[in-house]
Every structure is written in structure tokens, then in C-alpha cells.
Amino acid sequence: MKTQASNYLYELLKKKYHTSEIVRAQIDEVKTRTRGKSAKEPMKAFRVTFQGQVIDTSFEKTLKIISRRLFHNGKIDTILTVKEKGLVEAAITATPSEIESLIQCLMKPHVVLHYKKGIEKGASNLLIIDETEQGQADACAPDYIHRNYITHAESYEKYTGRFGDYLILNGLPLTSEKLGRELRFNKIETKNKVFTTTGLKEIYVNLHFISLILKLDLEQHYLKLRIFHLQESEMKIVEEKIDDLGFFADIFNHIASTDNPLLFNKELFSDLMRLERIIENNNWKGIPAYAGYIYSASGRLNGQFKLLEECGLFLTYANCIEKFVARLTKKFMKNKPDIRSEQENLTANYHELKKLQTISKHQMLQNDYQELLNSFGKLLAYLDFLTIKDTGAAASGTQDVIQLAQKSSKKFGSLLKKCIEAVFSVTINISTKPVFRQDQVLKPEQEDIQQLIGKFSANLEKLSKLKTVSGKDAFLEAKKSVPLFTSLSHTLDELKGLIKDMERQKDIQDPLKTIFARSNKFEMLQNELNAMGILKNTQDQETAHGLLKELQGLLFDKPLKEVAYGKIINTVQSLEDFVTSRDIPAKEQNSNRGVFMQKLHQNSVFKKFVDIKAGLKNIIETETLTRRVNTFKNDFDFFSYSAKELDAFLTEIERFHEELKDTCYYQNVSEFEAMENRLNQLIKAVKDIDHRISLCTRNKDKKISKEPDVHIDYLKSSQLLKKNLEKATLLLQNQIAQIEGFMHDIESNLDRHSFIHSGVTTSVLFDQITYLLSNIDVRLIALTQSMEDMFKESVSTIFHYQVGEGFKEPQKEEMDDLMKEIDKLAIIKEYGNNT
Q: Do the beta carbons of residue 805 and residue 193 sit within 8 Å?
């Protein structure tokens, strides 16, 4: 056979395309049109009969070539040609859309060119072309030409799904052995348990619904965080005022703040905090259990007194040292070699400074104190060097140093006495101390000593002139707190005596009231009201006492709870109304009511009550106003939805849940197809709600992304509320992320379009899902009652599956009848063509 190399059809044959470009384009067009639909459909078994111009092996090859180019995942299993009847039967595994597309392509006439011998080695011996290309066939000189197309087709789709309690796959009832082979196991060993696609969809839609509930709760937490940020400063102010009413409040203001290093005492503060709780609750019977804290506080208080004592000694030594350093500097300026006296005195002071153990171990002073001793030691070492240098002999120098140390220890007592007598009458300003002149030519030793003295003087001044944050003298301010510490010491001694009395089983009646009467600001206010003449009789005293006692219980119930806001406001208002309703006392008759009330409001305790009431009102009003806002979407950055938007989402979710409750596959497995279609609709609906609630995304700086600080005061409502909100927010975000991961895994199973899924491998995923759902604490994330009920119902639905769905094992004696019933469920479709 002769042909030209440039011939179009010849090139197609040589490249073994089997089809022309026009035919390929026609097939690709059909494939593209059905790709989306086919990808969503499960693979099924079909028996398709083709009738028409279906000529022998020519049509078989046409069928194979076109199906191979057309199908996404489908394949032809077997082909049988019945020449006598002019038909071809094919067993095909494909999706319904692929079968219809194949029939559509085959109904269009095609011309098939056949060659008995190849044009050249390796070339094709068959080519399918479009009818419009038939005129080009002469150039390729085929041995014979067939015109193939079908006029009629019939597809027989074998039933797949549930039939009663049986599982049917492609028209065959599944046994555990067949099911095992289908799922690539030897046998299913899970007591006839599998997951069907419909079952997984029910799990999926309920899991998605749970995710939606958690997302709504997450958004509610972000709204609460928005409100909290607006309330936080006011809450802290209220808490500070409540703390100021505490029994140890005056001491706390000193020892709990780092403003003054000489007063800050974290350990004493911690002990007193624990004691204050039992005192505020009048729990005197619990005192023996707190004995350790009482004795600990007493020991730490003694340490505080010791610190003040050592600070006084240190200032005395510092004053003496400054005088000796000034003398030493003068001698160096005048080049006087005799520095032995100053060296002795400085050495004696150095040894005394090293004895001040409380200061040297103080957490806020020890670094500076150690630096002072280091610079002092370097100065003394250099002075020793100068002494040895002046002696002219090492041995003599050594002896001098020994004598110097002995002599200095004897003389230091008398010198110290003189320094102490002069400590408050002599003040040395560092700037007026003798210094080396700038124009003076210094020897190397003088330069070294100048630097050592400068460094040491700076370190000494840093501690001797220690200031508070506000710039006041730290030591003088600390000494002003001695009466408070003395009063605390008496109180701790009384508590220790009370413990001993309780151990001796003495009869004790409410001793805390007596011990802390002088520290109880509520009783102090009552006494003040009585002294002002406002409480005129016993009834007035009982009324005021009842209101103050109730207020004390509410304010000391820490951390302050939101449910108590209204009670506190009402109680303070009742106290105000009671006080303002009293007549002006006789001794105040010269004043008008306004002046008298102004004097009353100047009382620090009463003023704090009024301020607390005002602060709580502001907190409540802030939340009310924030929840009235329609939307925050006009804000520059998205932080949270408004309360109204969240209520709208909740309404949608509740409406969806009503539809979800009416669709329950595990209770209606026989209604397989209807339930699956319904679940498909619900999946689409829940995804729509999810898309809208997840539409707005937060910037990284707006999203809670790290664990809250664990070092918080659990008696502070502001700190505890913030931590709980942030912790719950993080927990919700993690749980939602896990659930979305599970949903993705389930979707990957559904995408395989298999009717059945392994009860072994899929149950591993199910175990993870049940573990997560079992550990979600709805109390921690604070679901509303309606959300909690919906959550529990969906969890219950998922848990019904355990490790899968059950199915009935078909018996041999019932197989024939069962197959006949299954055959009746087959779907038969006919296709005709008038071409």
C-alpha cells in the first residue's frame, strides 16, 4: 500500500491515536459536560445491550476505544457479541452519567477504517473517524470500512443498597466473607458491623451540626470578651475598693506593692491572703488547719522587723564609711602615704556589712548589695597592696596586715559609737566630697584608687539613698509602717494563743470577732455612724448592723460574681436610704442636711460603698449597651458578631435542628435511598449556615491564640473571668479544628463512592470522634440550655453507630428467593435513536 507521509490520516495511524481529532473533540466535549455530575455519583454495575449497526469486532473495538477516552473511573468488564440477533452485550462498572454519555456518543455514526496489515511496523490497524472525514479515507487505502452506530440501547442497573436488613452490592447479598473481600479483608470480624455511605452521611451531618453549635458558642465567647474588655478597667477599680475593705488591706497596700523594696514581702502577703479568707468568713473553727500559715506569717513578720533593723545599721555604717572614704580621698589628693587609720576603719565596716544577712538575701536588694561588697572588697584589696608596697618588705608587710586586722577590730567599737552619735547630725553630699582634680597629674596607683573609690561610692549611694517609685526615702517610709506591723504582730500572737486554747479544748465563743474588731471596717463604720448620732436607738443599730453584715458577706464572697451585682447595688442603696432618712443629730443642728451628708460621704468606708455601687452599675450598663448594638461589622477590624446577629444564627440553627430530628437513618435503614437524599439536602443546608457564620475572619492580633497566664489571683473576678474566657475560647477553637479534621476524613470516604465502608478502618476514626465528643464539657464552654439540648441529641445520634451498622447474614437456603426479590429492584432504562 502506497501513501504519502504528509497524509493526515496516515499520521494518526502511525501515532496510534485510534481516533481522529474531530472524534476526540466530540468525546471530550461530552466528558467535560458530565464531569461534575459523574464525580458525585457512586460506581455501579450495569449490563448494557446495544443494537443497530454493531458489526462484529469492529463495534467491540469502537466501544472499548470510546469508553476508555470517555470514562473517568468506569471500565468495561466483558463484551459479548450475538451475531444472530445483531446485538452486543457489555458488563460495565461505571457511574450512571458515564453510561448515558457512552450511549450518547455511540448513537452518533462513526466510520471505522480497518487494515489487515499495518501501514508500517508499530502503526495502528484501526482508525475511527467522523462521517465528514470519510472522503479522506481513499488516501490511506483501508482494506475495508464499517459504519458503526446504535439505534437502541438498554441498561440494566443492578441494585445496590439496603434490602430490609441485608446489604446488597451490585445485585448480590453480602456475606461477611464477600464483604471482607470487597473491603480487602479476608473476613469482617466486627460482628457484622460496617459503615454504609448513608450512615456516614448521618454521622457527618450531625458532626457538622455539632461543629456549628461550637462555632456559635465560640462567637458568643468573643462577644463576651469584647464586653469584658470594655468592663475590665471598671472591674479592677471595684475590686481594689473591695480589697481596701479587707482586714489586712492597710498592710497589703505596702507589702503587696514593689514601690518600696524595704516593704515588699511576697511571702508574708501570701500567708495573710490565706488567713484573710477564714477571717472574712468568720470561720474560726478552721483556724487549726491554717496554723502553718499563722506561724509562717509570724516568722516572716519577724523577718520584716529584722530587715528594718539591719537597714538602720546599714545606714549607720554607710554614714561612717562615707566619712572615712572622704578622708582617704583627701590624703590621696595631698599625696600623704599614711592611710593606715582609714584602712582599718573601712576594713572593720566591711566585716560588719557582711554580717547583715537579711539585706544580703533580700530578693530585691541582694544583687545591688553583693555588687557593693564586691566593689568594697576590691577597694580594700588595693589598699592592702599600697600598705605592703610602703613597708618595703613582703614579710614585714604580712605582719603589718595581721596587726592591722587585730587593731581594727579593737578600735571599731569606739569608732562606731561616735558614728552612731553623729549619724543624724552629719550628712555628706556625694557631690561635695573631695575628688581628684582634673588638672592633677596622677600616678598609676592614684588612678586605680580613684576608679575603685568612684565605683564603690556609687554602689554605696545606690543603697544608702534608696528611693521608692514616687521618689521618697525608702527607709523613712518603711519606718512609718511600724505601727501596722506591730498591730499585726499582736493579732498573730492572739491567733497563736487561740490555736493553743482550741488544742486544750477550751470553750470558745466566736473569738474572731473580738480579735479583729479593731480591723473590721464594717464595724468601724457602724461605730462612726453611732458616734455621729445617726443611730438613735437599738432598732436603728440592729438595722444598720444587718445591712452592713449582709454587705460584708456579699463583698467578701470572692471572686466577685456577676449574679451578686444586683444584690450589692440594692444593699448599698438600702444603707444609703436608711442613713439619709435619719434626722440630723442634735449636735449637727447648726448644719444643713447637704453639709451633713457631705461630711458622711467623706467617711472612707461609706464612700467606698457608694463607689462600688456606682462601678457595678457602670459594668452592668456597659454590657447592656453593647448587647443592644445591631452589628460591629462597621468596625475597622472584625472581632465579634453582635448579640442580635448571634441570636439570628441561633434561630437558624434551631430551625435546622427541627428538620434534622425528623431525619433519622439509623432508625429507618430500610428507607435507604429516601434518607440519603434527605441527608444530602441537610448537608447542603448546614454548610450554608456554616459558611455564613464563618464568613468574617479575625486578624491574628484579634484572635486568642495562646494559653492565658497561669499566674493569676483566683480571688480577682477580672483575672479569673479573663482567664476562663480565653481558656474556653482556645478550647473551642481546638475542638472545632479537630471536628473539621474528622469531617474531612469522612468526606474522603464519601468521595470514594462506595456503598459500604470498613467497620474496621473507619471505626478507628469513629473512636477518635467519640473520644472528643465524650470529653467536651458543656459546663466549661457555657452552652445555653437550648444549645446544650441540641448538642446532646446530635451526640446521641452519632453514638448510636458505635463501630458501624449491623446487617443480616444471608443463608444458603434463602438465596434463590432473595435474588429474585433483588432482581425486581434493578433499574432498567431504554434509549432509542431514529438515525
A: yes
Helices first, then strands: H and E counts in the chain: 29, 13
Could you write out the DSSP letters of every residue in 115-170? -SS-SSTT--SEEEEEGGGGGGGGGG--SEEEEEEEEEEEEEE---EEETTEEEET
* Amino acid identity for residue 308 in this structure: L
What DSSP letter does each residue of 277-314 carry, written as one string?
HHHHTT-GGGGGGGHHHHHHHHHHHHHHHHHHHHHHHH
CA distances from residue 328 to 411, 433, 435, 441, 444 in whole angstroms, order as listed: 18, 11, 10, 18, 17
Can you give the pLDDT at residue 211?
A: 95
Q: Tens digits of per-residue pLDDT, 204-230?
A: 999 999 999 999 999 999 999 999 999
Single out the residue of 128, 62, 68 nearest to residue 98, CA to CA: 68
Contact yes or no for 138/116 (Cβ under 8 A): no
- Please state the φ and ψ torsions of residue 415, each to the nearest 5 degrees: -70, -40
| 3-state SS class at 50 | strand
Q: How far apart are CA 586 and CA 218, in angstroms?
A: 61
Low-confidence residues in the chain, pLDDT < 50? 1-6, 393-410, 420, 422-434, 438-439, 441, 835
Looking at residue 754, its pLDDT comes to 65
Q: At what angle do helices 366-391 and 340-353 cross, to 10 degrees?
A: 150
Q: Which residues of 522-558 are buried (b: 16+ CB within 10 A; e: fewer)?
A: bbebbebbeebebbeeeebeeebeebbebbbebbbeb
Cα of first residue to Cα of last residue in the chain, in angstroms, is 34
In this structure, are residues 712 and 723 in contact, taking their beta carbons and an 8 Å threshold? Answer: yes
**Cβ atoms within 10 Å of 601's Cβ, excluding its own:** 13
The alpha carbon dihedral of 788, 740, 633, 636 has a sign of: positive
Beta-sheet strand order (sheet of 756-757): 756-757, 193-196, 805-806
Cis peptide before 434 (omega within 30 of 0): no
Enter the C-alpha cell of residue 282: 468568720
Query: What cell does 690 get?
Result: 456554616
Q: Distance (Å, rounded) from C-alpha 794 to C-alpha 220?
A: 20
pLDDT of residue 191: 54
Crossing angle of the two packed helices 444-464 and 366-391, in degrees rounded to 10: 150
DSSP string of 83-129, one letter each residue = TTTTEEEEEEEE-HHHHHHHHHHHTS-EEEEE-SS-SSTT--SEEEE
172-173 sheet: strands from edge to edge: 161-163, 166-169, 172-173
Q: Which residues of 486-501 are buried (b: 16+ CB within 10 A; e: fewer)?
A: eebbebbeebeebbee
> Does residue 116 contact residue 102 with C-beta atoms inside 8 Å?
no
Specify the pLDDT at position 618. Answer: 97
Give the closest residue to 172 by CA, choosing from 181, 159, 182, 185.
159
Any idea how long the chain is?
Answer: 835
Please state, in angstroms and rounded to a whole number, the distance separating the CA atoms of residues 703 and 698.
6
Q: Give the model's pLDDT for residue 397.
A: 40
Residue 263 has a CB neighbour count (10 Å cut-off) of 24
Nearest-angstrom CA–CA distance, 706 and 714: 20
